[in-house]
Amino acid sequence: MNSFLIALPRILRRTLMTSSAILFAWPAFGQTTDLPMATPVLVTAGTKPPPTGAWMEASTVLPSEGDYRHQKRGESAAASLALGWNGNLPLGEQWVVPLDLMAQNISFGELADTPVPDSIHTLSLSTGLAYQAGEDLMLMGRFGGTVYRTSGLGAKDIGLSAGLMGMWRYSPALTYAFGVMINPDSDRRALPMIGVNWDINEQFRLSLMLPQPRLTYQPTQDWSFHVGAKMNGATFRTSEALGTRLGDARYNGVLGSYRDIRIGAGLGHAFTPSLRVEAEAGLSVNREINYQQTRENVRFGPAPYLSLGVKFGF
Hints:
This protein is mainly beta. It has one domain (about 1-314). About 5% of the residues lie in helices and about 60% in strands. It is built from 2 helices and 15 strands. The protein has a 15-stranded antiparallel beta sheet that branches.
């Protein structure tokens, strides 16, 4: 067990990619903007997908020491605010078009002589087509575009990504997901997608799905408690001033990938069927900025984090 916990951050780091929304379900917290990854949920015959939903999540990671070119460069924190909206457009009884919009804003504490941007601002829009082949099988294709920065916007600041995946219900309690996600601009351009959802009993549920694997305990209809991992991140482009500040022109307008892998626990409460709040705390175990074009990165040490999210249904 101890060896598994030690290896978990490395395993999650290798597999991290980004998602935008969940089809046929409430939007998930902890979303990222690398890939239009989604977790389709099978719909029972005669029922309809949930209505339009929106979510907001604010989080902060306490300061931890940054490492650049194998040198300690001081401490830096990270504060993020993410806003998302999702909807589903039915096309008959078996076809659905998902629509998802997400804005992500991340601010950092500046480190001297280190390629850490003051902030990251991205905006993503994704859609696709889902086909429910039967009560036990759903197939889905997703594609989308992401604006890598909101100032000095040009053609090079818009990237495309796509994914193919599906879900097969093996039994009423066990469902498998499969597929592949592709983002040419990310430092991890392709990710095979394999996962499982297991309804252990009426109160416990295990979800081994990116970007938020977790074990959930729901003692009542309104309250839930969970432990698990969360994967935040974004593909972004730096400003034209970052390299000037560093005296290194390679960092002017360069592509980067930011990721923050967390392990924690939290609770949620549904105030109404359309309003839910979640709070979480834990440890950011792997946080880094990777510049694939310069082949350099900035890594931050482990640090505590706090997050608060709100979900709305319409």
